[in-house]
Design brief:
CATH architecture of the largest domain: 3-Layer(aba) Sandwich
Structural class: alpha/beta
Shape: elongated
Largest sheet: 7 strands, parallel
CATH superfamily of the largest domain: Glycogen Phosphorylase B
Number of helices: 15
Number of strands: 13
CATH class of the largest domain: Alpha Beta
Order of helices and strands: EHEHEHEHEHEHEHEHEHEHEHEHEHHH
Distance between the termini: 21 Å
CATH topology of the largest domain: Rossmann fold
Mean pLDDT: 93
Helix content: 40-55%
Strand order of the largest sheet: 3-2-1-4-5-6-7
Length: about 400
Amino acid sequence: METIPCLKIIHTTCHTEFGGLEKRIFNESSWMAEKGHDIIIAAPGNTPLYNKAMEKGFITHDVKFKRSGIVKDFLALRKLIRNFKPHVLNTHGNEDTKIALSAAMGTGIPLKILSRHISAHVGKSWYNGLLYHHLCNYVFTTADYTTRHLIKTFGIPNERVRTVSSGIIPPAILVEKAEAKKRLAKELSLDSSARFTGFVGRVSRDKGVDVVIKAFYRASSRIPHHLAIIGTGTDEYLADLRACAKDLNIEHRVHFTGFREDVWPYYRALDCKMLASRDINGIPFEGIPQSILEAMYAGCPVIGSESGGIPDVIKSGITGLLFRVDDEGDLSEKLLQTLDNEAASRARSENAFRMVQDHHTIDAMGDKILRIYRNYFTKPKKNSIPLRRFF
Protein backbone atom coordinates (compact mmCIF):
# COMPACT_ATOMS: atom_id res chain seq x y z
CA MET A 1 0.00 0.00 0.00
CA GLU A 2 1.29 3.44 -0.94
CA THR A 3 2.60 5.44 1.97
CA ILE A 4 2.12 9.12 2.68
CA PRO A 5 4.80 11.59 3.80
CA CYS A 6 4.85 13.51 7.06
CA LEU A 7 1.57 15.32 7.62
CA LYS A 8 0.87 18.57 9.42
CA ILE A 9 -2.26 18.02 11.49
CA ILE A 10 -4.22 20.71 13.33
CA HIS A 11 -6.65 19.68 16.07
CA THR A 12 -9.08 22.25 17.47
CA THR A 13 -11.33 22.12 20.50
CA CYS A 14 -13.29 24.65 22.52
CA HIS A 15 -13.48 22.34 25.55
CA THR A 16 -11.62 23.23 28.73
CA GLU A 17 -11.72 20.01 30.77
CA PHE A 18 -9.82 16.75 30.32
CA GLY A 19 -12.48 14.14 29.71
CA GLY A 20 -12.81 11.51 27.01
CA LEU A 21 -12.79 14.04 24.14
CA GLU A 22 -9.63 15.76 25.28
CA LYS A 23 -7.91 12.45 26.06
CA ARG A 24 -8.78 11.31 22.54
CA ILE A 25 -7.15 14.39 21.00
CA PHE A 26 -4.02 14.07 23.15
CA ASN A 27 -3.60 10.32 22.73
CA GLU A 28 -4.22 10.40 18.99
CA SER A 29 -1.81 13.33 18.59
CA SER A 30 0.89 11.58 20.63
CA TRP A 31 0.52 8.43 18.52
CA MET A 32 0.69 10.37 15.26
CA ALA A 33 3.74 12.30 16.48
CA GLU A 34 5.50 9.01 17.18
CA LYS A 35 4.81 8.04 13.56
CA GLY A 36 6.59 11.19 12.38
CA HIS A 37 3.68 13.58 11.81
CA ASP A 38 3.64 17.19 13.02
CA ILE A 39 0.90 18.18 15.47
CA ILE A 40 -0.65 21.58 16.15
CA ILE A 41 -3.20 22.04 18.95
CA ALA A 42 -5.51 25.06 18.89
CA ALA A 43 -7.38 25.22 22.21
CA PRO A 44 -8.08 27.57 25.10
CA GLY A 45 -4.83 28.37 26.92
CA ASN A 46 -4.01 27.13 30.43
CA THR A 47 -6.38 24.17 30.14
CA PRO A 48 -5.28 20.56 30.80
CA LEU A 49 -5.11 19.64 27.11
CA TYR A 50 -3.26 22.82 26.18
CA ASN A 51 -0.73 22.38 28.99
CA LYS A 52 -0.18 18.69 28.25
CA ALA A 53 0.30 19.50 24.57
CA MET A 54 2.94 22.11 25.45
CA GLU A 55 4.75 19.64 27.71
CA LYS A 56 4.67 17.08 24.91
CA GLY A 57 6.32 19.53 22.56
CA PHE A 58 3.41 20.10 20.20
CA ILE A 59 2.91 23.48 18.59
CA THR A 60 0.11 25.11 20.60
CA HIS A 61 -2.09 28.12 19.90
CA ASP A 62 -4.29 29.77 22.51
CA VAL A 63 -7.72 30.19 20.91
CA LYS A 64 -10.64 30.82 23.28
CA PHE A 65 -13.45 29.83 20.91
CA LYS A 66 -15.92 32.12 22.67
CA ARG A 67 -18.92 33.66 20.96
CA SER A 68 -17.81 37.09 22.15
CA GLY A 69 -14.48 36.71 20.35
CA ILE A 70 -15.62 34.93 17.20
CA VAL A 71 -14.06 37.43 14.78
CA LYS A 72 -10.73 37.44 16.63
CA ASP A 73 -10.67 33.62 16.73
CA PHE A 74 -11.60 33.39 13.04
CA LEU A 75 -8.74 35.68 12.05
CA ALA A 76 -6.27 33.90 14.35
CA LEU A 77 -7.10 30.52 12.83
CA ARG A 78 -7.03 31.90 9.33
CA LYS A 79 -3.52 33.21 9.96
CA LEU A 80 -2.45 29.93 11.58
CA ILE A 81 -3.69 27.93 8.59
CA ARG A 82 -2.02 30.21 6.06
CA ASN A 83 1.31 30.15 7.96
CA PHE A 84 1.54 26.42 8.62
CA LYS A 85 -0.27 25.09 5.55
CA PRO A 86 -1.64 21.96 7.31
CA HIS A 87 -2.66 18.89 5.39
CA VAL A 88 -5.34 17.93 7.91
CA LEU A 89 -7.72 20.01 10.03
CA ASN A 90 -9.71 18.06 12.63
CA THR A 91 -12.32 19.90 14.72
CA HIS A 92 -13.78 18.41 17.89
CA GLY A 93 -16.29 20.74 19.60
CA ASN A 94 -19.35 22.72 18.58
CA GLU A 95 -17.88 26.23 18.76
CA ASP A 96 -14.45 25.45 17.34
CA THR A 97 -16.02 23.45 14.48
CA LYS A 98 -18.08 26.46 13.37
CA ILE A 99 -15.13 28.84 13.53
CA ALA A 100 -12.35 26.56 12.26
CA LEU A 101 -14.20 25.10 9.28
CA SER A 102 -15.27 28.59 8.26
CA ALA A 103 -11.72 29.89 8.63
CA ALA A 104 -10.45 27.01 6.48
CA MET A 105 -12.60 27.95 3.49
CA GLY A 106 -10.49 28.83 0.48
CA THR A 107 -7.16 28.10 2.20
CA GLY A 108 -6.45 24.91 0.32
CA ILE A 109 -6.37 22.48 3.26
CA PRO A 110 -6.62 19.10 1.52
CA LEU A 111 -8.47 17.21 4.27
CA LYS A 112 -10.96 18.66 6.74
CA ILE A 113 -12.51 16.40 9.39
CA LEU A 114 -15.38 17.16 11.74
CA SER A 115 -15.30 14.83 14.76
CA ARG A 116 -18.54 14.19 16.66
CA HIS A 117 -17.76 12.59 20.03
CA ILE A 118 -21.23 12.30 21.54
CA SER A 119 -24.44 10.68 20.33
CA ALA A 120 -26.72 13.66 20.95
CA HIS A 121 -28.72 14.38 17.81
CA VAL A 122 -27.69 17.19 15.48
CA GLY A 123 -30.57 19.42 14.38
CA LYS A 124 -31.40 19.46 10.68
CA SER A 125 -30.75 23.13 9.93
CA TRP A 126 -29.23 24.75 6.85
CA TYR A 127 -26.16 25.73 8.85
CA ASN A 128 -25.55 22.25 10.25
CA GLY A 129 -26.06 20.90 6.75
CA LEU A 130 -23.35 23.29 5.57
CA LEU A 131 -20.96 22.11 8.30
CA TYR A 132 -21.55 18.38 7.97
CA HIS A 133 -22.19 18.15 4.24
CA HIS A 134 -20.08 20.82 2.56
CA LEU A 135 -17.35 22.31 4.78
CA CYS A 136 -15.67 19.01 5.71
CA ASN A 137 -14.46 16.02 3.75
CA TYR A 138 -15.14 13.45 6.47
CA VAL A 139 -17.15 13.19 9.66
CA PHE A 140 -15.64 10.99 12.36
CA THR A 141 -17.94 9.62 15.04
CA THR A 142 -17.16 7.45 18.04
CA ALA A 143 -20.25 5.21 17.77
CA ASP A 144 -22.30 3.53 15.05
CA TYR A 145 -25.44 5.07 16.56
CA THR A 146 -24.12 8.55 15.74
CA THR A 147 -22.97 7.50 12.28
CA ARG A 148 -26.45 6.21 11.39
CA HIS A 149 -28.08 9.38 12.74
CA LEU A 150 -25.88 11.73 10.70
CA ILE A 151 -26.32 9.75 7.49
CA LYS A 152 -30.09 9.73 7.93
CA THR A 153 -30.36 13.39 8.96
CA PHE A 154 -28.10 14.99 6.36
CA GLY A 155 -27.98 12.39 3.59
CA ILE A 156 -24.20 12.28 3.78
CA PRO A 157 -22.72 9.49 1.64
CA ASN A 158 -21.86 6.48 3.78
CA GLU A 159 -18.20 6.58 2.81
CA ARG A 160 -17.83 10.11 4.21
CA VAL A 161 -18.99 9.24 7.75
CA ARG A 162 -16.61 6.93 9.60
CA THR A 163 -16.99 5.38 13.03
CA VAL A 164 -13.59 5.72 14.69
CA SER A 165 -13.96 4.89 18.36
CA SER A 166 -11.32 6.17 20.75
CA GLY A 167 -8.48 3.75 21.39
CA ILE A 168 -7.20 3.16 24.89
CA ILE A 169 -3.55 3.13 25.87
CA PRO A 170 -2.97 -0.15 27.73
CA PRO A 171 -0.71 0.06 30.78
CA ALA A 172 2.69 -1.58 30.69
CA ILE A 173 1.73 -3.71 33.71
CA LEU A 174 -1.59 -4.60 35.32
CA VAL A 175 -1.42 -5.14 39.07
CA GLU A 176 -2.71 -8.48 40.31
CA LYS A 177 -6.40 -8.33 41.20
CA ALA A 178 -5.90 -9.60 44.74
CA GLU A 179 -3.27 -6.95 45.37
CA ALA A 180 -5.47 -4.23 43.83
CA LYS A 181 -8.34 -5.16 46.16
CA LYS A 182 -6.05 -4.97 49.19
CA ARG A 183 -4.74 -1.57 48.14
CA LEU A 184 -8.24 -0.15 47.69
CA ALA A 185 -9.34 -1.62 51.01
CA LYS A 186 -6.39 0.04 52.71
CA GLU A 187 -7.09 3.35 50.96
CA LEU A 188 -10.68 3.27 52.24
CA SER A 189 -9.67 2.03 55.74
CA LEU A 190 -11.55 -1.24 55.30
CA ASP A 191 -10.69 -4.83 56.14
CA SER A 192 -8.24 -6.34 53.67
CA SER A 193 -10.83 -8.94 52.65
CA ALA A 194 -13.31 -6.28 51.43
CA ARG A 195 -14.75 -6.70 47.95
CA PHE A 196 -15.81 -3.95 45.58
CA THR A 197 -18.06 -3.02 42.73
CA GLY A 198 -18.24 0.48 41.39
CA PHE A 199 -18.10 3.31 38.91
CA VAL A 200 -15.04 4.92 37.29
CA GLY A 201 -15.26 8.15 35.31
CA ARG A 202 -16.80 11.61 35.34
CA VAL A 203 -19.29 11.71 38.22
CA SER A 204 -22.29 13.42 36.66
CA ARG A 205 -26.03 13.10 36.33
CA ASP A 206 -25.82 12.19 32.65
CA LYS A 207 -23.56 9.27 33.60
CA GLY A 208 -26.33 8.05 35.94
CA VAL A 209 -24.22 7.64 39.07
CA ASP A 210 -27.37 8.12 41.18
CA VAL A 211 -28.88 5.10 39.40
CA VAL A 212 -25.74 3.10 40.23
CA ILE A 213 -26.14 3.92 43.95
CA LYS A 214 -29.83 3.02 43.97
CA ALA A 215 -29.19 -0.25 42.13
CA PHE A 216 -26.42 -1.11 44.59
CA TYR A 217 -28.84 -0.45 47.46
CA ARG A 218 -31.35 -2.90 45.99
CA ALA A 219 -28.67 -5.60 45.83
CA SER A 220 -26.83 -4.68 49.03
CA SER A 221 -28.60 -7.15 51.31
CA ARG A 222 -27.48 -10.04 49.10
CA ILE A 223 -23.84 -9.12 48.52
CA PRO A 224 -20.91 -8.26 50.82
CA HIS A 225 -19.48 -5.65 48.47
CA HIS A 226 -18.72 -1.98 48.93
CA LEU A 227 -19.47 0.53 46.19
CA ALA A 228 -16.49 2.66 45.09
CA ILE A 229 -17.10 5.84 43.09
CA ILE A 230 -13.81 6.70 41.35
CA GLY A 231 -13.84 10.18 39.87
CA THR A 232 -15.11 13.64 40.58
CA GLY A 233 -17.98 15.94 39.66
CA THR A 234 -19.68 19.12 40.75
CA ASP A 235 -20.00 19.80 44.46
CA GLU A 236 -23.78 19.93 44.09
CA TYR A 237 -24.10 16.53 42.44
CA LEU A 238 -21.63 14.89 44.81
CA ALA A 239 -23.62 16.26 47.74
CA ASP A 240 -26.80 14.81 46.23
CA LEU A 241 -25.13 11.41 45.88
CA ARG A 242 -23.88 11.42 49.46
CA ALA A 243 -27.35 12.41 50.66
CA CYS A 244 -28.87 9.60 48.59
CA ALA A 245 -26.54 7.01 50.14
CA LYS A 246 -27.32 8.36 53.61
CA ASP A 247 -31.09 8.28 53.01
CA LEU A 248 -30.76 4.65 51.91
CA ASN A 249 -28.66 3.89 55.01
CA ILE A 250 -25.74 2.58 52.96
CA GLU A 251 -23.35 5.51 53.40
CA HIS A 252 -20.90 3.20 55.23
CA ARG A 253 -20.69 1.06 52.09
CA VAL A 254 -20.51 3.83 49.47
CA HIS A 255 -17.09 5.47 49.06
CA PHE A 256 -16.01 8.50 47.02
CA THR A 257 -12.31 8.55 46.19
CA GLY A 258 -12.23 11.74 44.13
CA PHE A 259 -10.16 12.09 40.96
CA ARG A 260 -7.42 9.54 40.35
CA GLU A 261 -4.84 9.97 37.59
CA ASP A 262 -4.06 6.26 37.36
CA VAL A 263 -7.37 4.38 37.25
CA TRP A 264 -6.06 0.97 36.19
CA PRO A 265 -5.57 -0.42 39.73
CA TYR A 266 -9.18 0.54 40.52
CA TYR A 267 -10.57 -1.40 37.56
CA ARG A 268 -8.55 -4.37 38.77
CA ALA A 269 -10.00 -4.01 42.27
CA LEU A 270 -13.63 -4.06 41.11
CA ASP A 271 -15.69 -7.22 40.65
CA CYS A 272 -17.95 -5.20 38.35
CA LYS A 273 -17.87 -1.78 36.68
CA MET A 274 -21.27 -0.13 36.09
CA LEU A 275 -22.09 2.70 33.69
CA ALA A 276 -25.65 4.01 33.80
CA SER A 277 -25.49 6.73 31.13
CA ARG A 278 -28.96 8.08 30.52
CA ASP A 279 -30.67 9.70 27.57
CA ILE A 280 -31.25 13.44 27.70
CA ASN A 281 -34.77 14.40 26.60
CA GLY A 282 -35.08 10.93 25.14
CA ILE A 283 -31.88 11.26 23.09
CA PRO A 284 -28.62 9.40 23.88
CA PHE A 285 -25.46 11.44 24.40
CA GLU A 286 -22.93 8.66 25.04
CA GLY A 287 -20.49 7.51 22.38
CA ILE A 288 -18.29 4.51 23.08
CA PRO A 289 -17.06 5.24 26.62
CA GLN A 290 -13.33 4.86 27.16
CA SER A 291 -14.02 3.82 30.76
CA ILE A 292 -15.87 0.74 29.51
CA LEU A 293 -13.03 -0.16 27.15
CA GLU A 294 -10.47 0.33 29.92
CA ALA A 295 -12.45 -1.84 32.32
CA MET A 296 -12.74 -4.53 29.66
CA TYR A 297 -8.99 -4.49 29.04
CA ALA A 298 -8.39 -4.72 32.79
CA GLY A 299 -10.49 -7.89 32.99
CA CYS A 300 -13.28 -6.21 34.96
CA PRO A 301 -16.84 -7.41 34.18
CA VAL A 302 -18.97 -4.56 32.85
CA ILE A 303 -22.63 -3.56 32.88
CA GLY A 304 -23.89 -0.64 30.81
CA SER A 305 -27.14 1.02 29.87
CA GLU A 306 -28.73 0.53 26.46
CA SER A 307 -27.83 4.06 25.41
CA GLY A 308 -25.92 5.57 22.50
CA GLY A 309 -22.73 3.74 21.62
CA ILE A 310 -22.58 1.51 24.69
CA PRO A 311 -24.24 -1.44 22.86
CA ASP A 312 -21.55 -1.13 20.18
CA VAL A 313 -19.08 -2.72 22.58
CA ILE A 314 -21.23 -4.38 25.25
CA LYS A 315 -22.81 -7.28 23.44
CA SER A 316 -25.13 -8.50 26.15
CA GLY A 317 -24.22 -11.96 27.36
CA ILE A 318 -21.03 -11.96 25.28
CA THR A 319 -18.80 -9.07 26.38
CA GLY A 320 -20.89 -7.76 29.29
CA LEU A 321 -24.48 -7.10 30.29
CA LEU A 322 -26.89 -4.33 29.26
CA PHE A 323 -29.77 -2.89 31.25
CA ARG A 324 -32.67 -0.59 30.44
CA VAL A 325 -31.87 3.12 30.72
CA ASP A 326 -32.75 4.63 34.13
CA ASP A 327 -34.07 1.26 35.38
CA GLU A 328 -32.31 0.76 38.72
CA GLY A 329 -34.18 -2.51 39.27
CA ASP A 330 -32.87 -3.96 36.02
CA LEU A 331 -29.33 -2.77 36.82
CA SER A 332 -29.58 -4.36 40.27
CA GLU A 333 -30.59 -7.68 38.73
CA LYS A 334 -27.70 -7.53 36.27
CA LEU A 335 -25.32 -6.69 39.12
CA LEU A 336 -26.45 -9.76 41.06
CA GLN A 337 -26.19 -11.87 37.91
CA THR A 338 -22.60 -10.68 37.44
CA LEU A 339 -21.52 -11.26 41.04
CA ASP A 340 -23.39 -14.53 41.59
CA ASN A 341 -22.02 -16.33 38.53
CA GLU A 342 -18.31 -15.69 38.45
CA ALA A 343 -17.60 -18.27 35.74
CA ALA A 344 -20.00 -16.67 33.26
CA SER A 345 -18.74 -13.20 34.17
CA ARG A 346 -15.16 -14.31 33.65
CA ALA A 347 -16.02 -15.73 30.21
CA ARG A 348 -17.63 -12.42 29.18
CA SER A 349 -14.61 -10.54 30.47
CA GLU A 350 -12.25 -12.71 28.41
CA ASN A 351 -14.31 -12.05 25.29
CA ALA A 352 -14.31 -8.33 26.07
CA PHE A 353 -10.54 -8.27 26.55
CA ARG A 354 -9.95 -9.90 23.16
CA MET A 355 -12.34 -7.46 21.47
CA VAL A 356 -10.59 -4.41 22.95
CA GLN A 357 -7.14 -5.80 22.21
CA ASP A 358 -8.07 -6.41 18.56
CA HIS A 359 -10.16 -3.32 17.80
CA HIS A 360 -10.02 -0.60 20.46
CA THR A 361 -6.42 0.12 21.42
CA ILE A 362 -4.57 3.29 20.46
CA ASP A 363 -2.71 1.29 17.78
CA ALA A 364 -5.95 -0.01 16.27
CA MET A 365 -7.44 3.50 16.24
CA GLY A 366 -4.29 5.12 14.84
CA ASP A 367 -3.91 2.53 12.10
CA LYS A 368 -7.54 3.05 11.07
CA ILE A 369 -7.10 6.83 10.86
CA LEU A 370 -3.87 6.49 8.87
CA ARG A 371 -5.63 4.17 6.41
CA ILE A 372 -8.30 6.84 5.92
CA TYR A 373 -5.62 9.50 5.41
CA ARG A 374 -3.68 7.27 3.01
CA ASN A 375 -6.72 6.38 0.94
CA TYR A 376 -7.77 10.01 0.75
CA PHE A 377 -4.39 11.42 -0.21
CA THR A 378 -3.42 8.69 -2.68
CA LYS A 379 -6.77 8.49 -4.47
CA PRO A 380 -6.71 10.56 -7.67
CA LYS A 381 -9.00 13.57 -7.46
CA LYS A 382 -10.27 15.83 -10.17
CA ASN A 383 -8.42 19.16 -10.13
CA SER A 384 -6.55 18.06 -7.00
CA ILE A 385 -3.23 19.54 -5.89
CA PRO A 386 -0.51 16.88 -5.36
CA LEU A 387 0.32 16.33 -1.70
CA ARG A 388 4.00 17.06 -2.30
CA ARG A 389 3.09 20.65 -3.19
CA PHE A 390 2.30 21.26 0.50
CA PHE A 391 5.82 20.56 1.75
